[in-house]
Request: fold
Amino acid sequence: MANVSAKRYVCKVCGGEYIVTREGSGELFCCGRPMTVKDAEVSVKPAAKAAAQKGARYNCSACGTQVLCITPGNIPSCCGRPMEKQLMRIDAVSE
Reply:
């Protein structure tokens, strides 16, 4: 099942929570299990030591899925491999 843009996905193992900012054809995984769309009934335990950073964006180089970390947990994976942290690029403007 492909991920859906603007939906919150949560890992029931580590508590990581991500919003999909760009859909792709891959499926989001964390802690070796598929992530689920968050609803009011999903309860999770927080990660003891989070690998992902709150506010960071992660990208799947295979299908183009992009997610934004809301609640840190383990780094999510998509298309069978860990997602890569997007580096922020700021171009300087000179006057």
About this structure: The chain has a mean pLDDT of 83.
